[in-house]
Design goal:
mainly alpha; binds manganese (III) ion; three-stranded antiparallel sheet; single chain; globular
Length: 202
């Protein structure tokens, strides 16, 4: 049974950066719906005992096209939101430490630079989608963007996302309306780099 990650904070705790109604709708409705649908489809496909990343990384093994597309979308929605919500915090670490910080500095030059690249990828994503910071098996880091609920796993890159920035309109429209860039700027105020560092170290 796939479950939504527990939130480490109250629905209004990310205000004013992310408002209570957006959190209630995003986590309580959208993410809940992806999770419910993913469970149903995984059961139908007989993959309910695998982990979500394993399912998304082997979609080609599912021959039924409707099921495969459904798992890509609903499974991606489940996985991406678990990552997104698990890295948000009301008292976030504003910078990574240790191995992740070193790798960011050697790859991008600075933390500000990788944040800038992730922001630009998110703002530039046409329509609904995400930007991601991902790692490969050697610990190299990559910035990318994906449409819909795709991610570097379902895209077959062999990379694992460690930071996910949601730029579907449901993530920001209630408060920021058409100003996606304003939401992206505020996202960094509630992103907990300690969580991202933990995921990098795994
Ligand atoms: Mn979303």
């Amino acid at each position: 049974m796939f479950k939504q990650v527990d939130l480490s904070f109250e629905m209004d705790a990310l205000e004013p950066h992310i408002d209570k109604l957006t959190m209630e709708t995003h986590y309580g409705k959208h993410h809940a719906a992806y999770t419910k649908m993913f469970n149903e489809l995984a059961e139908k496909a007989g993959v309910q005992d695998k982990d979500a990343a394993e399912i998304l990384g082997s979609l080609d093994s599912i021959s039924d096209e409707t099921l495969r597309k459904g798992l890509r979308n609903q499974g991606g929605g489940y996985y991406n939101h678990n990552l997104y919500f698990s890295t948000l915090s009301a008292s976030p670490a504003k910078a990574p430490e240790g191995a992740l910080l070193e790798k960011i500095n050697s790859t991008f030059g600075s933390l500000d630079e990788v944040k800038d690249q992730l922001s630009k990828a998110a703002i530039g994503q046409f329509g609904s989608g995400w930007s991601f910071l991902s790692k490969d098996k050697d610990g190299n880091l990559y910035v990318s963007a994906s449409p819909n609920q795709d991610n570097p796993i379902s895209e077959g890159t062999g990379r694992t996302p460690i930071l996910a920035l949601d730029v579907w309109e449901h993530a920001y429209y209630l408060k920021y309306r058409n100003l996606r860039a304003d939401y992206v700027k505020e996202f960094w105020e509630v992103l907990d780099w300690n969580k991202v560092s933990e995921l990098y170290a795994k």
